[in-house]
Amino acid sequence: MKQIKDKSIQSYLDELASKAPTPGGGSAAAFLGAQAAALTSMVCNITIGKPKYAAVEADMQALLGKSEALRSTLTDMIQADVEIFSQLMAAYGLEKATEQEKIRRSQEIQAVLREATLVPLACAKACAEAIELSQEAADKGNLNVISDAGVAVMSAYAGLKSAALNVYINAAGLKDRAFAEEQLTKLAVVLKGADIKTDEIYQLVKNKL
């Protein structure tokens, strides 16, 4: 089966709009983050090699390496969300006619839910990193494409908040509340200050237009 990253955008959107359970919001969150990283890369690529920006050439080269690595990570997360959600649906579909089957089903659901909480948490962290990278693009990037740095930060922020929703919903179903609260605490750390930072970067870009 083709991975989502190997399909056309139209095909991806058609699947997103369909009745099929995947891809869904988790994949969309990762896509937003990957898009943000790609836009940061774009700003770097259009800045690198320009005499006017020779003073930040090395910085942009380094930033490009980071944004491309992050784009790859987030692109893989689009598929990771599909796979973990498919596992969760399979767990919910297990037989529950006997007491033993009910116990096995519950155990399987809980095991997958743990992973289904960790996957969007990792996505949230990656999107937070995308926000950070967009700031340098906004600070030093070619003014001809500076608005793209603004789109990058907004896309990354949307991905972050979207991924957070998936952490919340999956953590809510966990019986192991200690584990759930641990992940929610980690998420809170990732989210802290993201609203303010995003607005600062947005305003930085806007003031350069």
What does this structure look like?
By secondary structure, this protein is mainly α. The protein has helices at residues 9-17, 25-47, 57-92, 99-140, 146-172, 177-191, 194-208. Helix 2 (25-47) runs antiparallel to helix 5. The termini are far apart. The mean pLDDT is 95.
Task: Give me a quick take on this structure.
By secondary structure, this protein is an all-alpha fold. Helices cover 80% and strands 0% of the residues. The protein is elongated.
Write the layout of secondary structure elements.
Blueprint: H1 9-17, H2 25-47, H3 57-92, H4 99-140, H5 146-172, H6 177-191, H7 194-208
Q: Determine the mean pLDDT.
A: 95
Q: How would you characterize the largest beta sheet? A: none
Q: How would you spell out the order of helices and strands?
A: HHHHHHH
Give the helix proportion (percent range): over 70%
Report strand %.
under 5%
Rg for CA atoms: 20 Å
Count of extended strands? 0
Coarse structural class: mainly alpha
The termini sit apart by: 44 Å
Number of helices: 7
Overall geometric form: elongated
The stretches of 5 or more residues where confidence is low (pLDDT under 50) are none
